[in-house]
Amino acid sequence: MIRRPPRSTLFPYTTLFRSRRLDVGQKGCDRSPSPSSTSDVIYVAMKRKPQPTQNDTPFRNVNDRQSSSSSDGREDVVPVLRPLKSNLGYPPDLIQGSDWDNLSIQIWSKFMSCKQTDEMFNKKMRLHGVLIQIMQKHYPMCGLYVVGSSMTMFGTNSSDMDMCLMLMANDIDQRVHAINILRDILRIIKSYDYFVKAELIRAKVPILEFRDSVSGVDIDLNVNNSVGIRNTHLLRAYSNLDWRVSPLVLIVKLWARIHDINDAKNMTISSYSLALMVIHYLQYGVTPPVLPSLQKLFPHKFLPGQDVRELSLYEKFQVPPSKNTYPLGHLLWGFFHYYANIFNFEEEAISVRRGSKVPKHYVKFNSSSKNIPGMWKCLCIEEPFDWTNTARAVYDEDVFARIKNVFLTSFTKLNKTTSLSSIMYS
After folding, report:
1. Rounded CA gap, 112 and 25, in Å?
2. Are 128 and 63 in contact (CB under 8 A)?
3. Read out DSSP for 293-320?
4. What does the alpha-carbon distance between residue 250 and residue 274 come to, in Å, rounded to a whole number?
5. Helix, strand, or coil here: 193?
6. 3-state DSSP call for residue 203?
7. What is the 3-state secondary structure (H, E, C) of 12-58?
8. Kind and range of the H or E run holding 90
9. Were 149 and a residue from 1, 155, 236, 384 both cysteine, which residue would form a disulfide, CB within 3.0 to 4.6 Å?
10. pLDDT digits (tens, 9 = 90+) for 208-266
11. Rounded to an integer, what distance in angstroms lies between the CA atom of residue 243 and that of residue 70?
12. How buried is 205 (Cβ within 10 angstroms: 0-12 exposed, 13-18 middle, 19+ buried)?
């Protein structure tokens, strides 16, 4: 029997991520990059013909309660990408006639060849349309949010689709209530033949892992972990401020994966923490800064307790362009230099919220119901909304020593060769 929360607490249904403009990737890692950079595209819901919408409401998707029979045989919304314009060639500031040009071109080419493709994004949005219909049969007032790298522009074609099922506006006990709800959803998912490898993962935030055999997309589903919606909104906003942000984050993620330091389950750094490390460096580790603190500039837009239905991925924040004109290659070199030689991991913590580094003892006693002093050990990165340590999985001193050595070794190689290939192998 499905355990439903009291009707008074149900989370009113919102469709997700309907946008007028969206920049997504073109080709996968197994192909050479196109000379054309990504196009601006428009998403529309359709039956037989595209039907553009003017609605730009928060976190909306192509799902507008319209459906058609998709090519995989399932009744769902069919998203259509309609190019608005093309930006041919490299970004205008990529090549500056400096010693960093070759490295900058290598970074951009790798980014373009590995970023999430339009085709993969379409698959994920179609799958979202399928899942929201399934969830609404059992939780009629739910909201289903696509979060994480699928929406922040930091994802690759192999990235999972992280999703948050919102059933009520308030937080729930993740260790009890969320587990019970996910057990029920596990039974629901197993009743559909095209969902396979379903497994409930017990963690601080429990998730249901499963795969859609039609699209080949892996899904990680949580319940009412609204902080994931908020930080997706924040990271997307940072990625929109400067074209250099997304390539740097994606390259750092690929680099960390190659060196086996990008897996929180194995006591190394999560992709989210790596993204925060890059953003912190761009805020504080380089002069002049590339990025400001959006939470300082727009505190009313990034409130920890804000209703997630009020958030819009496509809101434009009026921020003066950065005075930093460093080439992409220089910034990547500076990232490794900062964490290999400057940042004091023993005494300092990263705070993207403040746009600076802070003493460790300061974040240990953040006034937050979820914060525990004992979680601040080796690598300390403040979560911008609930003020916990996003890198709490990195608690083993030996593992952390290996991580720091990877940073130092990579900096040494990059400093010597200024070649991306020198650091992209283990």
Report:
1. 7
2. yes
3. -HHHH-GGGS-TT--GGG--TTPPP--P
4. 9
5. coil
6. coil
7. CCCCCCCCCCEECECCCCCCCCCCECCCEEEEEEECCCEECCCCCCC
8. none
9. 155
10. 999 999 999 999 999 999 999 999 999 999 999 999 999 999 999 999 999 999 999 99
11. 34
12. middle
Structure confidence by residue, pLDDT tens digits, 138-156: 999 999 999 999 999 999 9
Residue 320 CB contacts under 8 Å (≥ 6 apart), including other chains? none
3 state DSSP class of 282: helix
Nearest to 253 by CA among 263, 243, 244: 263
Six-digit token pair at 297?
């500039």
Contact 110, 102 (CB under 8 A): no
Cα of first residue to Cα of last residue in the chain, in angstroms, is: 49
Model pLDDT, residue 67: 39
Distance (Å, rounded) from C-alpha 236 to C-alpha 230?
10
3-class SS of residue 338: helix
- Contacts of 188 by beta carbon, 8 Å cutoff, 6+ apart: 2, 134, 138
The two structure tokens encoding residue 349: 């913590």
Judge whether 59 and 145 are in contact, CB under 8 Å.
Answer: yes
Q: How far apart are CA 314 and CA 195, in angstroms?
A: 31
Dihedral class, residue 338 (left if φ above 0, else alpha if ψ from -120 to 50, else beta): alpha
- 153 close to 248: Cβ distance less than 8 angstroms: no
Minimum mean pLDDT among 81-85, 243-247, 326-330: which range? 81-85
How far is it, in rounded angstroms, from Cα 149 to Cα 92?
A: 25
Q: How many residues does the chain have?
A: 426
What is the SS3 assignment for 166?
strand
User: Which structure tokens are listed for 2?
Assistant: 């499905």
